[in-house]
């Protein structure tokens, strides 16, 4: 597999101009306030999950997300630690996947953390073991997938709902027993990495500080340039949409600017560990570097995997994430 983007020295210096909405912060402040109001009468609920896994205590969490809609998550922790306030890792998932089965994702909890996996609304049938959260909101006609869903206006875009769900999840997690609210980290790969960046910036602005941010081969950054150079993956949905809607180019890019990880990265102050793979044909490396190079964090690292594709560093990188997080707890 060949290198898919610029040489590494150029990637480290890559700082593109990304469309910047003048009302970005107000847009998100209003969105989060509306979601809080819509879910004000609904408390998060946990019930024991049915799973053959016995080394972990797994709970099924339902919490009010965007519009007060019920969103699902798994909460896992080492068995026998209910009386301890443990650090938390909240994880967001890659494109098309759902939260899967209880006990399916065990690594973070086995490493001693409370592990929370958010279901991504409307997804869960592309890979893995399925999801349990519908997206009840409609959209204008668009190419299959979610990149162009609601692309007619920022208020309608799919990722407005998903990013809001992520913030509301962190708020819900802070109310759960047995969690250390001062030691919450966010992570995710690909789409989950992009959600991590958005959630981190919005949580720091509207909820409270985070102990670390761990986006892995992060998608949803530098959307316009990513669509121009990607050779596979969901960015091509936008290219296909624009090949049909030829007169909508500026409207599309003006809309998705509200969801660009570069803008969120600028607003993050928590310690951050990124990863990037230089043979990634789904997330062009320049898009990850665009967010990393804009990052507001003083304490930051990026792991570069020169000969990997979209799988990135795999379990080796997870080990690095654990070490990075433990150093900052």
TrEMBL record:
Domain of life: Bacteria
Gene3D superfamilies, alphabetized: alpha/beta hydrolase (3.40.50.1820)
Pfam families in the cross-refs: AXE1
Signal sequence range: none
InterPro entries assigned: AB_hydrolase_fold, AXE1_dom, CE7
Domain Acetyl xylan esterase: 1-326
Protein name per UniProt: Acetylxylan esterase
Origin species: Curtobacterium citreum
Taxonomic lineage: Bacteria, Bacillati, Actinomycetota, Actinomycetes, Micrococcales
